[in-house]
């Protein structure tokens, strides 16, 4: 994992959503070409207050309240990015991103190729994603696989405040479009020491959250916390889990996946998206292609279900939680 650029800098304990705000502030202060735009990001500070106070600091020409029109937000940002600005757009919830899908995949992702390198698209599309907060329909989707499938896009999902600030800085500085998905279930779940000064965490590098020898558990976003809880519980039974937080889903750190699996010979993949077409399948395929001869047991998937995301009463059942993850790991280890 990368370190802060100034190891002597002061730090403060931040939640994940505060780290988003701190990351935006630092990059806007560092680079006048960085701007923020989206619904209610200005005076209201965003639906989760991730942009609170930015309009007072940088003015309404760099913190732009837009109409309720996701296609217009991203389409406008593509044009800005093509001509040298670095827009960071906010989509209020991932379930609202679909009207902007055409702008993202047909234009932002293809601009470099279409123009044979004459233009790039240094654009970040931020969106809170995932469930667990008792939200209405369209507010709890976990559809990261849609964007991983599209060449020309990077897809980033942090799980800690430190990584959030550093990965967001890397995304903003990247010359190509980045989908930056923020796990809103853990927006305010815990705090972590985050340096005040800007720093970066490299895109495309996984983080081993827990070393282990019996089974590799691959996950990301909000699922990292129940996965870590499951690993600690299973340690009391003598099962030593290695937990790998992928952090960037595109480009995916295939080397980290391969190296961890070589050590353990067993794997479980945990994500809250539906099982069918989920990224667990891609991770398993990578293992099969590269390190099949190390495999000791079938690879298990602990995921959401192939249903529309449920409301309220069934939400806790839908999301992988520590007990279900433990069952999946035991099944693999005991094969």
UniProtKB/TrEMBL annotation:
InterPro entries: THDP-binding, Transketo_C/PFOR_II, Transketolase-like_Pyr-bd, Transketolase_C. Its cofactor is thiamine diphosphate. Signal peptide: none annotated. SUPFAM superfamilies: Thiamin diphosphate-binding fold (THDP-binding), TK C-terminal domain-like. One of its GO terms (biological process) is sulfur compound biosynthetic process. GO terms for molecular function: oxidoreductase activity. Keywords: Oxidoreductase, Thiamine pyrophosphate. Pfam families: Transket_pyr, Transketolase_C. Residues 14-189 form the Transketolase-like pyrimidine-binding domain. This is Alpha-ketoacid dehydrogenase subunit beta.
């Amino acid at each position: 994992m990368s370190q802060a650029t100034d190891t002597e800098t002061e730090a403060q304990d931040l939640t994940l959503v505060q780290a988003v705000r701190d990351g935006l502030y630092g990059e806007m202060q560092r680079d006048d070409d960085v701007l923020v735009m989206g619904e209610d990001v200005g005076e209201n500070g965003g639906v989760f207050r991730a942009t609170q106070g930015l309009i007072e600091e940088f003015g309404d020409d760099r913190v732009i309240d837009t109409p309720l029109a996701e296609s217009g937000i991203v389409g406008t940002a593509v044009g800005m990015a093509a001509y040298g600005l670095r827009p960071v757009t906010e989509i209020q919830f991932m379930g609202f991103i679909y009207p902007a899908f055409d702008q993202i995949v047909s234009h932002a992702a293809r601009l470099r190729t279409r123009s044979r390198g004459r233009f790039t698209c240094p654009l970040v599309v931020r969106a809170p994603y995932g469930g667990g907060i008792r939200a209405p329909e369209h507010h709890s989707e976990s559809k990261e696989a849609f964007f991983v499938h599209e060449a020309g896009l990077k897809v980033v999902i942090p799980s800690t405040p430190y990584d959030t600030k550093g990965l967001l800085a890397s995304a903003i500085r990247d010359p190509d479009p980045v989908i930056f998905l923020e796990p809103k279930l853990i927006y305010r779940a815990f705090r972590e020491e985050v340096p005040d000064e800007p720093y970066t965490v490299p895109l495309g590098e996984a983080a081993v959250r827990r070393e282990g020898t019996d089974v590799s558990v691959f996950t990301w976003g909000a699922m990292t916390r129940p996965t870590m809880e499951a690993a600690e519980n299973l340690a009391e039974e003598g099962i030593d889990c290695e937990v790998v937080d992928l952090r960037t889903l595109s480009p995916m750190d295939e080397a980290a996946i391969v190296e961890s699996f070589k050590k353990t010979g067993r794997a479980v993949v945990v994500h809250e998206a539906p099982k069918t077409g989920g990224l667990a399948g891609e991770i398993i395929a990578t293992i099969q292609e590269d390190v099949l001869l190390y495999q000791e047991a079938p690879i298990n998937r602990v995921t959401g279900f192939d249903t529309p995301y449920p409301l309220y009463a069934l939400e806790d059942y839908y999301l992988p939680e520590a007990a279900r993850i433990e069952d999946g790991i035991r099944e693999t280890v005991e094969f």
